[in-house]
Each structure stands twice: as structure tokens, then as C-alpha cells.
Amino acid sequence: MKRQPLILGAVLSALLCGAPGAGAQTIERTTPLGVDADGVGGFNAFFGDTFTAGESGRSFTNVFTFSVAGIPFDAAASVTSSFLDSPFTKDLLITGLSLYRFDPATMAVIGNAVSGIDLTGFGTDPVDSWSVTAFNLPIGSYAVRVDGRVVGVAGGSFGGDLAVSPVPEASSWAMLLAGLAGGALTWRRRLAVGQPIKNRPARNPGGRSR
């Protein structure tokens, strides 16, 4: 008869120990980005997420996906989260920002992810701030990933931005340099044969401008 209370106590202890583990499950969300063309071959985008009081204490991983076609590109992204305490605290602790290429069929990461830089300041309740920059990336499917934890009792939110700009291929640079070199050569030849350069004042034998 004495064993029954012991068994019930063990069951209750197991349930209580298991409850925090269930509540601490990581929040994972994947969202395709809506992009706005910039008129010069690239685009801009905004992203973010919000968390409620019921999600306080949980870690989160947000993945924002986008695709780039055409030519190689440069990309830069930043994310921020502010502290608010009036009267319930809204606060996030951002622990990582990264940019990587992935296989859309398997979602597997291709190559190495580019890690962001923590720019969060010092002092009491500083604004969480991160940035990441990558150059000359090949075309394909990409993702911006934000990791962190909801530390405010009333949840919290973060916002970010992404900028993508195309990079001219090597052949385009070669054509541009060839054109500049050709123009410089023509200019030097005209000087050598004494032909007046456009917008250059003619000179008399005495060296004075007319």
C-alpha cells in the first residue's frame, strides 16, 4: 500500500521534468522572400518575424529564401531587434545571422555558409544588431538564416533587409577595358599627328590661345 504514493510521485516528477523540454522546442519557420527590383538588375527585400508571450523562453530559427538568376551577384543583409519594457518586456537575443546557397529539392546547404558579424553594442539592453556580406556569388537558390531566443516575457520581434546587386562577368569587364584602352590610344595618336582635340582651343605659333 505504501508503494502507490511512491509510484504516483515518480510519474508526476517525470511529467514535470518533461514539460519544460516540450516548451523549449525550437521554433522553425521558412518563408520565401518577396523581392522588389531595383531597376539596375538587382533587388531589395525586407523580412522579419514576431513572437508571442506563449513562445517566451524558446529558441527560434528563421530561414528566408530567394533565388538569383543571370550573372553572379553581391549580397548584404542586416537584422535588428530592440528592447521594450512597458510594462511587459519584449526582447529577443539574436545569436546568429548567415547566408548560404541550398539545393531546393533537398534543402541541403551547398558549400559553406557565410557567417554574419555581431554588431550589438554594450550597456543596458542594447539593440541586437547583426550584418552579413558576400561577394561574387554564383546563381542559384539562397537563404538568409536568423537564429536566436525569445527572452521577453511578452515575446518580441526582429526585422531585416536584404540587398542584391549583379556583378559584371569577366568578359564584360574585358570589353569595357578594351574600349577605354582604344579611346586612350586614339587620343594619343591625334596628339602625335597634331590634330586638334575636340573642345581643345587652337594655339598660334607663339603659343598663345586665339
From TrEMBL:
<dbReference type="InterPro" id="IPR013424">
    <property type="entry name" value="Ice-binding_C"/>
</dbReference>
<feature type="signal peptide">
    <location>
        <begin position="1"/>
        <end position="24"/>
    </location>
</feature>
<keyword id="KW-0732">Signal</keyword>
<dbReference type="Pfam" id="PF07589">
    <property type="entry name" value="PEP-CTERM"/>
</dbReference>
<feature type="domain" description="Ice-binding protein C-terminal">
    <location>
        <begin position="166"/>
        <end position="190"/>
    </location>
</feature>
<protein>
    <submittedName>
        <fullName>FxDxF family PEP-CTERM protein</fullName>
    </submittedName>
</protein>
